[in-house]
# Entry
Amino acid sequence: MLKTLQIRNYQCNEKLDVEFSPQVTSIVGRTAAGKSSVLRALWWILTNHPAGDEFINWDAKKTIVRLEIDDNLTTRAKGKNRNIYKLDDKKYTAFGNDVPADIAKLFNISDVNFQGQFDAPFWFSETAGEVSRQLNRIVNLEVIDTTLANIASEIRKNKTEIEVVKERLDKIKKQREELRYVKQLDTDLIEVESLKESVDKKAVKHARIDELLKSVILQRQTADRASEQAKTGKLVVSKGILYYQIAQKVENMSILIENHRTLQKDIQNRPPSIKPLEILQNKILQAKVEEVALRNMIDNMSDNFNDIIETKDELIKAKKELSKIKVCPLCQRPMTK
# Structure
């Protein structure tokens, strides 16, 4: 519903605020007061016509028209550097000669909704075809006709499909009557399948028992062979122990025989004379005596050498002391070198 209209610098209306009544709003005034300009401003914001800027007041650079519909405020402004639509806080530019889609959807108004001052009574002077055309523009009768035609087409299609489905249903019912025995067959089949399942389980159990029997037989045969091999092994072990003991005794006897032969050879051979050894031992003893005497001599020489060294040191010290004495202590004469 239209609530308010604000006009700024549109033709002769420099500033005008119109508040619409919920029922009927009448605009009255003297001639050339701007009554028609109000309708033109309303037409301009609703349809974006006329184009150009001749409607801008001579003393202004731009014109602004605001229209409040329900809770939405629409603004149309145009000037030298400004050409916009605005819906609440959203601005629209580059919309050409049309009204932006969002605003046109909000208005939902066309030229059919307007009548000029000198126009004939609405629809009374129009032909039936023109009235039908204008009425179609308002309520879109073409859509209704198209919809009804589509509905009729869908009804025909559905009827055809229903007939086809009925024919199929009759055939299916007839086939169901002809196949009543299938239920009994299904029951018999279930029983047969149950019996087959039982037989399969028993066959599996039989196969397992057969495998177990074969395994037991193989185990028994293996145990018998193992028992025989154990007996043979025990006999071999006992024989081997006896053989080892005999071999040890033979080896010991061989060692004793070899030792006996060696002793026999030693007994048969006489030992050599030890006189050369006695002479050698005497020489060794004499050499040891001489070694001791020589060591004593070396020790004495070492002691004498040390005494000589000490005597030389004392002589040097005495010479140094003597060189310090200038007068003989006995004769009191000067010392000469």
